[in-house]
Every structure is written in C-alpha cells, then in structure tokens.
Design brief:
It is a single chain. By secondary structure, this protein is an alpha+beta fold. It has a single domain, classed as Beta-Lactamase (2-Layer Sandwich). Helices cover about 40% and strands about 20% of the residues. It is built from 6 helices and 5 strands, in the order ββαααβββααα. A 5-stranded antiparallel sheet has the order 2-1-5-4-3. Helix 3 packs across helix 5 and helix 4 crosses helix 5. The longest helix has 19 residues. The radius of gyration is 16 Å and the shape is globular. The N and C termini lie far apart (about 40 Å). The protein binds flavin mononucleotide (FMN). The site of flavin mononucleotide (FMN) has 15 residues, from strand 1, strand 3 and strand 5.
C-alpha cells in the first residue's frame, strides 16, 4: 500500500550531541536494524521501520545527487560521510552528520550497510543547507528526475573541482 505523503512542518526534532542514531540495511537499503534513538526521532512504531526502505525518512530538501554519491561510494566498498536532513513521521526534521559503511564478509563481498549519525553544529548545518538548496534547485529545474539528479551531481562535482578538493576534504572542511 502506498504511504501517505508527509508534509514537512519546518519544526526541528531535538536530540542530544551525545546521542548516536544507528541503522543497518540489507543490500537494497531496507532497514534491518534501528536503535532506540532512531526510533524516537523517526516517530514510527518499530513494526513500520524494520523491513522498510531507508527512504522512508527522506526529506524532500535532500538533493538526490547526495544519495547517488552515497550509493556509488558504499557499493564500491568505501565509506562515506554526509550531512543529511531526515523527516519524521509527522513531518518534523532533524539534521545529522552520517558515517555510512559497507559490511563485508570474509570473501570481501558486501553483505549490507551500516550508518552511524551524530548531531552536527548549527554553523555546519547553515553551510550545507546553502549548498543543498542550490543542488536541489538545479535538480528540480529539470522535468525528468534522473536528469535533474545528474544536473545536481555535475554541479556538486564542478564546485569541488573549482575549490580543488575531493568530496571528503570538502566535507571535513565544513
Ligand atoms: C546504511 C544506509 C543508511 C541510509 N540512511 C539514510 C537516511 O538517514 N536518510 C535518507 O533519506 N536516506 C538514507 N539512505 C539512503 C536511502 O537508501 C535512499 O537512497 C534515499 O533516501 C533516497 O531515496 P529515493 O531514491 O527513493 O528518493 C541510507 C542508505 C543506507 C544504505
């Protein structure tokens, strides 16, 4: 059954700097584990979370190209750090700084993914929000979602090139 469309409220869910939001997924990004902080912030009952796609907490302000970068990186068996704004069941939101890693078996096959997230500080959120707004604008200027995502992706890569930095260097300079 299709999920009802959630409208963002603009209200931020509070959480503590000492808290860690944790989830694990299968290879397709379906949630197989979520800790109590995840549950509290997402405001979903546990039965709705386990087995659901991680995009269930996607906020419409998130650029698609960031998720492309995320998936390209973790599927290539690399880890990635990313700022993400997530949306709770009631439309409230919370910014996180996520560290997403692939889980490998003994034969070096990817068998799942893991994400740990902490609260970023306000200055970091302000900086990333400006970038994400411009990426999202570029993405939504295209009719076709995939073309929009590639436009956002090219814009991000262009900005990194202009600064002469790799994505990781950029993220840790914020
Ligand atoms: C381990 C892991 C953690 C993820 N965490 C989030 C998250 O916190 N918020 C989010 O919107 N997407 C997260 N994603 C990405 C989603 O799988 C998905 O790509 C994204 O929400 C965009 O969904 P869409 O392409 O269906 O719009 C995560 C993926 C993985 C593998």
């Amino acid at each position: 059954m299709a999920r009802p469309k959630i409208v963002p409220t603009g209200i931020e869910c509070p959480f503590d700097e000492s808290e860690l939001i944790v989830s694990k997924t299968d290879l397709k990004g379906n949630i197989i584990y979520a800790n109590d902080v995840f549950m509290r912030l997402s405001k979903y009952p546990p039965g709705d979370v386990i087995g659901a796609p991680h995009s269930m907490i996607r906020h419409p302000d998130m650029p698609r190209c960031i998720f492309k970068l995320l998936w390209d990186t973790i599927q290539a068996k690399q880890e990635i750090f990313a700022y993400v704004v997530n949306m709770a069941r009631d439309g409230d939101h919370y910014w996180v700084f996520a560290h997403v890693t692939p889980t490998l078996d003994r034969q070096n096959n990817v068998i799942g993914f893991h994400s740990n997230r902490r609260k970023p500080d306000r200055g970091q959120v302000d900086t990333i929000q400006k970038l994400y707004r411009s990426l999202r604008e570029a993405e939504t200027s295209e009719r076709n979602a995939k073309e929009g995502m590639m436009r956002g992706y090219d814009m991000l890569m262009g900005q990194l090139k202009d600064r002469g930095v790799e994505y990781d260097e950029f993220i840790f300079s914020i």
